[in-house]
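C-alpha cells
________________
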Amino acid sequence: MLFNITASHASPMVTYVPGALWRETMDGNATGQSSVETYHSTSAIQGEGRVFFTWFGSGSVWIFGARRPSLGPYQVLLDGQSTKFPGFRDSDTASDDAILFHLPSSLPPAVHRLELINTGGDALQPILDLNRIVVQNEAPNVTEITSRDPRCKWGPTGTGSKGWSNNGTTRQKHNKPCDGDLDAQLHARASKTHLLNASQGSGISVYGTLNPNSSSFAAIVDGWASNTLYPNSQLWLASEDEELLYTTSGLLPGNHTLVVRNSPPSW
C-alpha cells in the first residue's frame, strides 16, 4: 500500500537555493477564502530561484503552488529528467493551490531528487510560488508514536537542566538559551518499504510544529546523523499544523533508535 509524505514549503527537508531569493509570504486574499495560509515565493527579476527535495520512496509525485497570472515559466527536474512548463496562460483558471507538477507513473523504490526552477524572464510573469511537495512510499504497516509514548525518552534531565518540557497537551518543547526552540511533536511513523534488492526495509518520519523561533536540529538514526536541518518558517501562523521535520527510509528490518537533537552545533 502506498502512503503520502507531505513536505510543506516550511519543512526543513526542503532546500531553497539561493535562500536570499525566496521569502515566506502570508496569503493576501482579501476574501479570506484562500486555502493556503502561507507559501514560499521567488521572483525571476532577482535571479533564478531553485528548490531541492530528496527522499527515498516509490509511487507518484506532486508539486503544489499558486497558478496566478504572475506565474512565469518554470522547470522541474526529477532524477535528472527535465520537464518545462510555460507558466500562466489565458486559458488557465487562477488558483492559490494548483498542481504545478504531477508524475502519475510509479517511481521505483530508490533515492529520488526533485528540483523546481523558476526560469521566467518576463517582467509581467516573474513569480513562482511553492505550497508543498507530496511524494509516496510503500507502507504495508504504519505505526504512529506520539510524544507521550513511553518509548520516547527526553533529555537532558536533572535539576536546572535546559531540557524538554511538556506544553500541557501533546508536545514536547526544547528550550535552550539563545537557541530558540524546536517544537517536536514526535510522530515517528515506522513504515516498511520495498528496497531495490527486493527485501523489506523500514522508514521513519518525524512531524512537529514550526514557527520563527524554531531552531536548527539534527536527526540521528542508529548513530548516523543527518546534516543540520534548518526550518524554513519565518511567519507566525494562527494554526499549529504538523510539518514534516525529517524523513528517511531504506532501513533494514528490526529495532532502530532515533535521536532528535536541538541546535546540534552548540552541543
The two ends are 40 Å apart (CA to CA). The mean pLDDT is 79. The chain has no helices and 20 strands. The CA atoms of residues 53 and 114 lie 5 Å apart.
